[in-house]
Structure formats: C-alpha cells, structure tokens
Amino acid sequence: MIDMKNVLETWGYEGNPENVARVTGSWGDYYRIVCDRGEGIARKKSSAFRSVEKHLMPTTGDFVKIKWNNSGESRILEVLPRKTSFVRLDPSSSGHKSQVVAVNFDTLILVMSLNENFNLNRMDRFLTIAKNTGAKNIVFLNKTDLVSKEEKDEMLLAAIERAGKDVSVFAGSMLTGEGIEQIKSFTGPKKTIALVGSSGAGKSSLVNMLAGEEIMPTFEVREKDGKGRHTTTERELMLLKDGTIIMDTPGMREVGLWEADAGMECNFSDIEELASQCRFSDCMHDTEPDCAVKKALEDGTLAMERWETYVRILNSTIPEEKKRRTSNHRFRE
What we know:
Order of helices and strands: HEEEEEEEEHEHEHEHEEEHHHHH
Largest sheet: 6 strands, mixed
Number of helices: 10
Oligomer: single chain
Helix content: 25-40%
Number of domains: 3
Structural class: alpha/beta
CATH architecture of the largest domain: 3-Layer(aba) Sandwich
C-alpha cells in the first residue's frame, strides 16, 4: 500500500509535493491525477492556459500545479518544467505542428519486432528524436521466436551498428522471456520507462512481462503484413508492483522529426563532424570543392547507406530546419 504522504515520490517527483500532482492519464479535456491527497479527475483552468501552445499543454507524465477539490474536479494551474520529452511532427498538421508523445521519463525503449516491422530506417528516425531527450535509450528487438538464430544475430548486429555506442540494443521474446532480464536492469522504484514503437511490435506484451501479470490487452498481428491493431489507444502511466512507472504509448506508423537539429547532431555525429571540415560552412556536399563528406564517401570512410539515411531524414524535417541547413554558402575562414 502506498504511503499517501510520499505518493509523489513514489511516482517519481523529487521536489516539494505541496499542491503538485502527476498526470497519469488524459482523455480530451479531462486528466487523471495522483497527489498526496489521493487520485482524482482534473481539468485545466482556462485562464491559465489561454495563451499556452499546444505542445506545452498538460499531458500524461507531466507534473502539474493543482488546486485540489475533495468533492469534484480539481484544476490544473501550471505545467512544471519537463525533465525529458519525446516530441514528433504531428502527422495531421501538414508539417506545421508538434505532438508530444511522452514526457518525464528516465529511459525510452523503442520496441521493434523481428518480422516485417524490423526497419533500420524507422529506427534511425526514432533515435534521432530519442537522442535529443537526454534519457537513456534502448532498442528492444522483440519476437526472436519468429526467426532463426542466424537471422536474429544478423539483425541484432545490424541494429547495434546503426544505433551507435550510446544506445543499448537487446533482442528477446515475450513468448519465451528471452531478454527480459536485460530490460529489468533499467527498471526500479521511482524510475519512469516510456515505450514507443509501431502497433504490433509488442509494447503491451512487454508491459505485462515487466508487471508479472496481464494488465494490458494484447492482440495478434496480421500474418500477411506483420502489422498489429492498436491495443493502446491513449497514453497511460502505470505503477508496477516493484515501483517502476511504465508509460505505454499508442503505436506510431509515422515518425516525423520536429526541431531535429540536436537529434541529428547526436545520431549522426560522424557526418556532422565531417561536414564541419568542408571548405564551405553550408556545403551541400554535391558539387562544391574540398568537400569532406564527398571525400569520405569516395574512400569508404563513410558508408553510402548511412549517408543516404541521413539525407532522407534531413529532407523530411520541417521546412524551417531545412532552410537553416540549406541557406546560402559561406566560405569557411
């Protein structure tokens, strides 16, 4: 049983808990919150959020200042600064708005299954965002039971090489329990773990395995294309018996980049370093003389596949980012 005097600490908050709550779920204008007074439903105070941008509105995982109401809806007065956030380009916004996927997590786990869902280019896009969050990043290759040992080893090695040394990559199966102990090494009291990935990758199954019981519904994927149905339709925080806080997120088919600059620099630091050595500070790496990137491609120092992935992701970023990176050339002093 949770000690209500320390409830926010249990839910990962390290500051003064007075008038502070954590959002554990959200549905439209309504939010489920937990605080030292208990659990309840809250809504935003309209005047406090009248001029606040959408991506700064309360969302699941946020710590918020509240006015508690014992007999009805409480009011959210302010969103406290976020420790971490995973933000993608809103697929419904035609490239003009962002969408907050997860906030205030310690570890982000990208779940991919070793069937048609296995896609290194998609992994690159996820990690370009993830490496900009400041959290620990993990790639979990699920459903090893669907492939041979040779296929598993080949895909695992390819993912490790693409992910980089600052990302932990594991392979396993929720059917056999393989890999679960490696994931558990990142769990524990007061730690928030956010799960992201496509539908059918096995995020909900991973939640159940970590919980030691079935707390999330799961469905089989379609055999013809390896795609799954959305078993998670809303973001929800769950407190497991061991004190781990889990956030399962709806499956994402698209991973558009928003404010990609820092993420590109982290996930493609080798290319960014080469680009800094070009004669022109805004070199397009095309026909310009003394281009370090072209030289690296020619001598094999930079793999063409990695370069093409970088270009593909860069070309899909928001227009402002592309303009910043493709402005007029300036001669490097």
